[in-house]
Predict the structure.
Amino acid sequence: MVDVKGLKKVYKLSKKQMAKDNRKTNKLVAANDIDFEAKDGEIFGLLGPNGAGKTTILRCISTLIKPTEGSVKVAQYDVVNDSFEVRKRIAFLTNELKLDENFTPKYTMEYFGKLYGMSKEDINKRREELFAYFGVDSYQDMKIAELSQGMKQKLSIVVSLVHNPEVIIFDEPTNGLDVITAKAVTDYLEKLRQLGKTIIISTHIMSVAERLCDRIAIILNGEICINGTLKEIKESTNTGNLEDAFFKLYQDKVGAII
Amino acid sequence: MSNDLLTIVKKELKRVFDDKRLVFTAIILPALAIAVIYSIMGMMIDNMVDTMQQHVPIVYVENAPEEFLRLAKTPAYLTSMELNDANGDLESIKSQIYSGEVDLLIVFEDDTEVMISNYQDYDRLPNITTFYNSSEDNSSTARFRLFPNLLEQYEKMIIGYRLGNAQYASVFAVDRIEETHDIVDEQKAAGRSFSTLFPVLITIFLFSGGMGIGMDTIAGEKERGTMATLLITPVKRETIAFGKIIGLGIISFISAISSFIGIVASLPFSKALFATGSGDVSLGALGFGVSEFALLLALMVTMVGVFVGFISLLSVFAKNVKEAGTYVTPLFMIIMVLGFMNMFNMNSVELSTYAIPIYGSVAALRAMFMFEASTVGILITCLVNIVLTGVLVVLIKNMFNNEKIMFSA
């Protein structure tokens, strides 16, 4: 379970960044007053355009950055005070986390498995299972550099799941994947939900959010505009689908779409 | 924690040893390049000295007194120069000196012989003018080695005549008895040769060995996004920092040893590069015992810790490998300057000097090769290096926790 309460993240900008973005203050509020709860056996979606603050929120949950205000708890552990315990229990997958391309998938699994404190038998078992599911097994002794883009992304997912985490956080899970790989990934997320895992994903693709998420929070300008099931969101905005609901909220909050 | 540390160190080593290109540039190339370059340099110096020694200086003389010519034709001088009469053609000879074809022109005053024999009637000395070319080694040697020697003998001859006996012109005989007068400690003499260049070379090798791979292992990982993947694992930041430093330190050390093997391999040809004293330039002549080697090893290992610590710290701070290069290169220059400051310093190393970070390490190396090192001093240097490495690990750990540095997006 992930519990986010009153999360605020303020970035301090350098003079160079201020000049680049033409900003008058050196503070940028990337996320403000974020409240939500992602339960076990649930896929929770953060939906919003680029720059809305989705990645910032996910980074805070994953202990990579610290919240300026508010609290984030992952499986009862605080991300600031118990970051070590949190890291043991989560998988965080984003485009900016990469694997060293000089190693083979097999070695990479072993390396990360060991860092998560797993035994050799557990690592092997997990590797066989995940490699078979994602079709990495026949490439496991090749250098990652030699793999196709899709295979690299599948491997990133596999490696992030090596320790069988309780909480899975995916930043744009299907971004840049071909339709076949994207389907394999979303199917696996559904499988993880069945296993009772807590899953948080961020996306700007409506169909992904609509099909996959049990509950959705729409984020605009660093704030949550609405939080609920698809049905609740449609009812509340008096619209027929998520896309219409999103644009209605966007117009209310940000203004007309050009 | 120790398991994680081992995993990270192993991965760092595997990263290098699996990559044939890295193995070649970090480990094989230093030995090969240094052996070849130093051998060629040494052989060229030997060759230059040989050519100079083989050269017979071409000397022209104008108005030479009879006695001077007689002396020049004695067996002692006959083979050591080719003496010609200038025959008044001074300008042409000067242009030949300018072009390097002739080495020396000696011009005696017109009536030198009269002035010498009636010396009591003159209130000034007969003048000798010499012409040479300071840009030509052979010409300089003829002017400043051959000529003074010849003139001294000539003057002695004249004084002998004036005193009525050639023996009276000399007052002392120096070291005439056949026995060894050089009471030299061969070990110290060899050490003196090594103490000039070796401390600087060892320092430079230790630093440069870790430089390329160090920037790649941290700044490169940051740039490629693999560092963040590591930071998301439940491994303590200091373990990551320490693991990287140990892995990098081992590579650095192997690379430095490889460079060192290069020097040893080149020694048969490159003695001229290192010989500053009269000692035999070989590691055998240095005769380090077990305790000396143990201290040298401790010194080098702790120096590696400090160097890779600094390289890592700057690489963590940098956004990419290019930026890391901008920070690490000036540091490399500072290290080289500290090394060279020791190179031309022959003073004994004070105990307090051992405690100066980096400079003290180079000084300690120098003291070791000069056989003047104090064990306490070396241990102080090692301790300072260990503490400094510890401080660097803490700083790196803090940087890993600094989201502005690690995730500047």
In short: The beta strands of chain B are 58-62, 82-85, 104-108, 128-131.
